[in-house]
Structure formats: C-alpha cells, structure tokens
Amino acid sequence: MAGVLLSAPRNDITRRDSGTPNRATGDGYPGPVSRIEEPAPRPADLTDDLALALRLADAADAVAMERFDSGDLRIDTKPDRTHVTEADLATERAIRRILDAERPADAILGEEYGTSGDTSRRWVIDPIDGTHNYMRGIPVWATLIALTVDGVPQLGVVSQPAISRRWWAAAGHGAWTTTADGDTRRIHVSAIDEVSASSISFQSIEQWDDVDLVPTLEKLARAVWRDRAYGDALPYMWLAEGRLELVAEFGVKEYDIAAIAPIVREAGGRFTAFDGSDRLDAGSSLATNGILHDDFFALLHEEDAR
User: Which of 79, 94, 111, 303 is deepest in the core (most CB within 10 A)?
Assistant: First the structure.
C-alpha cells in the first residue's frame, strides 16, 4: 500500500538515567521500568479504542492458549511456503468477530484473512506473531493488535500470554506493561548514549543475507557491547523497557510492526524503516532508544555515504 506512514507526534519523555549496560534494581528490573505508576488519562478519542484493543487481546489469548503446545495441532503451508496453524486462523477469526460487532465501520487488515473495508480507521492484526515458535511449543510468540488512522498507528497492543506479559500504548500518553506478577508499569527506553555500550537484536542472519547486508551486520556486531537474535516482537518490547538499544529487521509486513511502532515511540524511542523513511510498508524496521538512532543509522549506511 502506497503512502502508509508510521510516524505520529512523539511524546516529550526524556530520560537520562546514569548507569551501565544490564544494570538492575533490587527487584530485577532495569532502571527504566523500575517504578510502578497509575496509567495517565488517555485522550477521549482513543480511550474506547484502547479498551477494545485490550479486550481483543484477552479474546485472542484465550483462543491461542487453548491449542498451544498441543500434540495434534493442525499445521498447513501457505502459498508463500510459510506455515499457518489452526490457532492462527481461529485467533484472527475471534478478533474479527468482535470488531465486526463493535466497529463495523472500521477496516481490518489481518495476516491470515487479508483486508476488509476501506476507511481511514483500520485495525491491523497479526494473530500469532512467531508461528514457528508457537508450533514448536516455544513460548515466545504474541498477538499484535494496532489501530491506524489515515495510515498512522495510533495505538498498539502486544500480548504474550505464554509468558504472562502484555504491552500497550496510545498516542501521546506513554507505553505500559503488565508484568507476570500483575503489576502495571510505565516503560521507557534506556538512556545509554554510546554505541559501544549498547545491546542489540538483529533478528536473524538470514534476513540480512536476503538483502545482501551480512557484512554490515558483522560491522554492527563488532561495534556494540552485545548482540543477540531474539526474534519476533519480544526484542522490541525489551527495547521499550530499556533492555536493548536497537532492533533491526527485514522482510516485515505492516501487520508485523503496526502494533510495535507506537509502543516503541511512546516509550521514548524512535521507529523508522531501515532507510529512515516513515513507512509501514517499506519491508524493514529500525527501532532504537532514540538517543542512538542517528549514530546507528550512520553506522549502518556508511557504504551508502561513501
């Protein structure tokens, strides 16, 4: 889809905590997510939508968990040779049923059932992000739910029921998480301001190889403190919590990142495509803690600059 934007007005959160990589408070949380707060009031025009998105996540969690790690899970292969499970399909159907009843005028884009409707308001759904983990019984997968208005993500929910975690954000009012112990916390990106002190996730070598950027990935890995390929939505949430400073990915679709972008941005970070554009349909993502975005961009595009 042409002209799809992921940029929205960013909040004014700045957080310059001192510290070193992997610092932690007494409860095991790194500094940026250590305090517990009551959520701030949300704008009236998003309050109902966010409440609905969280209810959609509840419904999705119930359906997806019912078949997770089952020995007789049905798995099929799509035309693009990726896998889809019966749980992917059932979870998206459950979300669509609620949206059809409560937001009949809104459009929907889902990974499994495509696009319905053509309005400025569109719900974007990935019923199970991390299907390959799901089908192997690995608990790192999530349901992603976003609302875009005129192509701009206004709110996002990332729910990972197998590890009892959920994250959400609405434009202008910060990013939040519910932890496994039931606490609700506001989350912020880290204040690390040196590439050499940063921890990053590059998702997979295969992705970088597909775009002929393995040498760039090797250069990036040598420049940072720590690199890992955690994969899927979870590293973006760790970035929003202040645990990572960069997550970069290729081969992504709008439904892979629409819910993630507002959470990263409302946590104080930056989220662009790899080429720096503000597009959901660019096929790539470059999420950072904001402070280091320009430094990482310059490092990743040194050859282009030459």
Answer: 111
pLDDT digits (tens, 9 = 90+) for 148-196: 999 999 999 999 999 999 999 999 889 999 988 889 999 999 999 999 9
Domain-wise residue ranges, the chain: 44-161
Classify residue 38 by burial, with Cβ atoms within 10 Å: 0-12, 13-18, 19+: exposed
Is the per-residue pLDDT at 19 higher than 80? no
Please give the share of the chain, as a percent, with pLDDT higher than 90: 74
Token pair listed for 45: 């025009």
Q: How far apart (Å, rounded) are the C-alpha atoms in residues 36 and 48?
A: 24
Bin 116: left if φ > 0, else alpha if -120 < ψ < 50, else beta: beta
Spatial CB neighbours of 179, under 8 Å, sequence gap ≥ 6: 164, 165, 185
Identify residue 51 by its one-letter amino acid code. Answer: A
Helices (H), ranges, the chain:
44-67, 86-102, 131-135, 205-210, 214-223, 234-240, 254-257, 260-266, 293-300, 302-305
Q: Work out the burial of residue 26: count CB atoms within 10 Å of its CB; fewer than 13 is exposed, 13-18 middle, 19 or more buried.
A: exposed
The strand pair at 142-149 and 152-160 is best described as: antiparallel
What is the third-level CATH fold of 44-161?
Fructose-1,6-Bisphosphatase; Chain A, domain 1 (3.30.540)
